[in-house]
Design a protein that fits this description.
Blueprint (H helix, E strand, L loop, with lengths): L4 E4 L4 E4 L5 H9 L1 H7 L18 E9 L13 E10 L7 E6 L8 H16 L4 E7 L3 H9 L3 E12 L2 E11 H6 L6
Parallel strand pairs: 5-6
Antiparallel strand pairs: 1-2, 2-3, 3-4, 4-5, 6-8, 7-8
């Protein structure tokens, strides 16, 4: 069961990851439609950690909810987890975003909304000048998501990882605080 509500948008809610969510995370990450674009190995449940305050990463479940007005944990029949967004090294000078959604909801705009909510969270909670993210060169959807939110391509790590039978390039992106602010004049 997802934890406390951190942020909500028009269609998705971000909730803290709890121990009960490990089965969802493990099963989703084993799906080849996610595993290959992310470059992740298959992991069993024991290899998934639920972060604590000292873990150095903020991890959120991306959820669809029947009623997202309650700040506490939702009832099991009111929430559907559809992905995860994480922020590594958020208390450092350049946090790195990671994100994925289950294939059943790809192309519906949930990822863009979830990553946008996390960007707002990071720039409001942490005094950092920029946020980074990376995507494999073949992952057009992920690259398009980042570019639609104002991220600029900053570099490429050639033949970075062996994915699905081939060495693939990793494209590095960055978004400066000033760029984030300029996209919405109401941002602090």
């Amino acid at each position: 069961m997802p934890g406390a509500r951190i942020a909500g948008g028009d269609r998705v809610t971000l909730r803290t990851v709890e121990r009960e969510d490990v089965e969802f995370l493990q099963r989703a990450s084993a799906d080849p439609e996610l595993r290959y674009p992310l470059g992740n190995p298959v992991r069993n449940r024991e290899e998934f950690d639920v972060p604590d305050e000292d873990a150095g990463a903020d991890r959120f479940l991306v959820c669809l909810e029947a009623d997202d007005t309650d700040p506490g944990p939702p009832d099991a029949d009111e929430v559907t987890p559809v992905g995860q967004v994480s922020v590594a090294d958020a208390d450092y000078k350049r946090p790195e975003l990671g994100y994925w959604l289950v294939p059943e909801v790809h192309g519906e705009g949930y990822g863009t909304e979830a990553v946008s909510l996390v960007l707002d969270y990071v720039f409001r909670e942490y005094d950092v000048p920029a946020v980074g993210a990376a995507a494999f060169d073949f992952n057009d959807a992920s690259r398009g998501l980042l570019e639609s939110l104002g991220f600029a391509e900053e570099g490429r790590m050639r033949a970075y990882m062996f994915v699905d039978g081939e060495h693939r390039d990793m494209v590095q992106y960055g978004l400066l605080r000033e760029e984030w602010r300029s996209r919405d004049p109401d941002r602090a």
